[in-house]
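new request in #modeling-help
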Amino acid sequence: MKKKTFKTVNTQFPSVDGKGIMMGRPAYTDDFAPVDALTIKVLRSPHPFARIASIDTSAAEAMEGVEIVLTHKDFKRNPFTRAGQGYPEPSPHDKFVLDEYVRYVGDEVAAVAAVDEETALSALDAIDVEYEVYEPVLDFESAKGHDSIIHPEKEVYEMFPIGFDPERNVAASYHMEIGDVEQTLAQSDVVVEETFYTQAQAHTMLEPHTVNAHIDYQDRLVLFSATQTPFHVRRILSQTLEVPISRIRVIKPRVGGGFGGKQAIHGEMLAAAVTLRTGRPSKLTYTRQEVFESSYTRHPMRLNIRIGSTKDGRLTALDLQGLSDTGAYGEHALTVYMVTGSKVLPLYNKVDAVRFAGDVVYTNHVSSGAFRGYGAVQGNFALESAIDKVADKLGMDPMALRQKNMILEGETSPIFEVMGEGTEGTAMDMESCKLDYCVKRGMELIGYEEKSPRREVSEHKIRSIGGAIAMQGSGIPYIDMGAATLKLNDDGFFNLTVGATDIGQGSDTILAQIAAEQLEVPLEKMVVYSSDTDLTPFDVGAYASSTTYVSGNAVLKAAQQMRSRLVEEAARSMQTSPEAIIYEDGRFEAEDGSPGIDLGELATKLYYNEDQKQLTTTGSYYGTKSPPPFMVGFVEIEIDRETGELDILDYVSVVDCGTTINPALARGQIEGGIVQGIGMALTEDEHYSKKGKLISKDFLNYKIPDNYTVKKLTTEFADSYEDSGPYGAKSVAEIGIDTPPAALANAVENALGVRIRSLPITPEKIVAALKESRTDT
Amino acid sequence: MADITFTLNGERITLREEPNLRFLDVLREKLNHTGAKEGCGEGECGACAILLDGHIVNSCLLPLASVDGRDVVTIEGYRMTERYQMLEKAFIEEGAVQCGICTPGMMIAAESMLRENPDPTDEEIRHGLAGNLCRCTGYNMIIAAIRRAAKEGEGLW
């Protein structure tokens, strides 16, 4: 560990953009929509599965103010995936801009662009569609091999083998085994077998999906898009609409939250098509109903887990097999499912055998896709719930069982080499892993010794503790690249342009801190801009917990290069050798005592007076490993044994994400993730009618946490340093969401002796489980 | 079309428009005031909150006709005040802003609440902000910011 004292990183600076945002200054996509933009509205399918037998748009087209009406007849059948991922994508190309088939209630049928919203909506009403209605697949457990084939079209394809088998409704499939799981389980003293279900969770970022498009004075297509992945959007638009990529510019202004929901194409395709065909600016903003009904959710899963152990609590085998529901389209189907194993099972790395397998199936529900946690939260719920069951069976304390078996610094897991994201993985040792400290400290903070497992506080109320450990990653090694460019300006301030996409998490701020640290300048000398496919260097975007680690390393490289270029120029100006220069806090001094120079003065001379030139450096980085952040989560609840209602008294998180570049922003990521995880654990659930129509499509029927949900969050960071990370940092964006489902399920069992195996854990389920347990005994 | 006259951030203006337009659209599209955001369009999230005669209102549910003769303050006007400065400082110090879409609405809600109750308990702050959703922060940093602003800004409200 080469930890040292820092000047700018590991310091709690306010966000570089916070003030302007608070003041309500124009910053977001819709704030920049041209005033004369056509409004695009989309006609959406009322059927979960149908073919458009005929569509008559003549009446709509004849309406005054309607500029264009688009249907599937207007597009070449050119399948793509909406998923914004590395290319070639590990997601099946199974989506058309508009298609003759509709595969869920809310799927696109036609689009209207008109002078205003009212006209566009009236035009939608005037479109006459006849559907040939098919029997939908609404139960994911009967999807595989169902008589209804959701993707019967011949054009769909996989870009490389992902187990794609559309004739059997399988979007992707995966299997791996290390050691002999069956034999190891047969020889284990104790085997726990459990089945868990996780639900579709909606992202509900407060800014809906929104895009606006125009043709600029150079006849290029310019899009402002609320996206996590501007460079993927540009590539997918070009490939699908067959527009040269050099003619497309995608600008990501400030984004109002993403959580994975904007790691995809949403309205971009239709807005681009309207503007390309009409030459007029257009905008498409999803209504809140469309965000629920027509974007995508977290993949619901069934997870069957078996864990073997010796009688003294050494875990021997892990077997996780499941089924994932990708809905109508296969965005992120394989990779989310793989992360359910690859960023969960290595937590217990000392087992003799481990297996992970399963299918990802199509159904006629809203698509599933990327969502913070990306499969790990589902896998964590299954594994960390089952670990408590193993402890129970062994008569051991569940945290003691974890401490005995969990991964430690310097160790590895064979899973890292076997499982990547859609491909093989990368072997790595845990050079930074303070999970042992996290667990110990978390137990102190929650008061584990005194409070665990339960205390009766009144006739009806019980207080209990539940815990879980988790890991995630820091980018996708050998695939995801980020780049950053630093430009020196006169008077010695810098422009830092990054392709990395700040979507509210604060990446602009932490990337500026990394550059300011290396260049030893105050943070205000670093002007950050993200991201614009014309102006900023490439970056895959904000996903897979990659920005701090991958983009941060790119920034560090650019800053290191800038620093040595500055030293060279200072040496030239001071007529000495670069080796003789000492640079500190914005000033160059020479070892021989000749007069020094300030950075600002040097910079101004470089532009106006001496050997004039522009100094610009670019750093690129891709990981050769993905060092996981680790954490423990403990919840203390008070639960009513009659009604099953519970209050969260405290949620303790102790996190190892290496150096926190900005402790306040890191805490924001963890606590925001914890609360989203609590929403998933307790209230959030997509409900469908029996006919396959989404019912929970507003904030009244889909309950996200409000400010009463959890009044106390206790968050600490372990003292940890990841040598391969920028100033010792690992990423931190996703891991917070992983522990609440299992920690809460464990707390409920500790309080009442009943195990809830399907999310969300509602009072109704708790009461039903209590009734059942009373009947059993 | 009708003439609608109201005060916007201290300035008296008259618009000739359809009286049933959503006031949020009028602000954003006709008056170029983009501080109020549309989060849901159904009055459930509070991102479009403004002050109407000093009280918080969701502008997505407000027809233009309803502001006739009344006093409207949006974040663009509120940010000129000393009270705003106090809230801004507290939000920064507590790290209460992430994506920021909910933030102008949270500010407006805080102002509306503190105006009625300058010395709120935590429970009263939570109650005052019950109509404003945030998906990023987990809320506690926002509650802490308002607690801090109320304390440090004693006498402002």
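bot summary: The mean pLDDT of chain A is 97.
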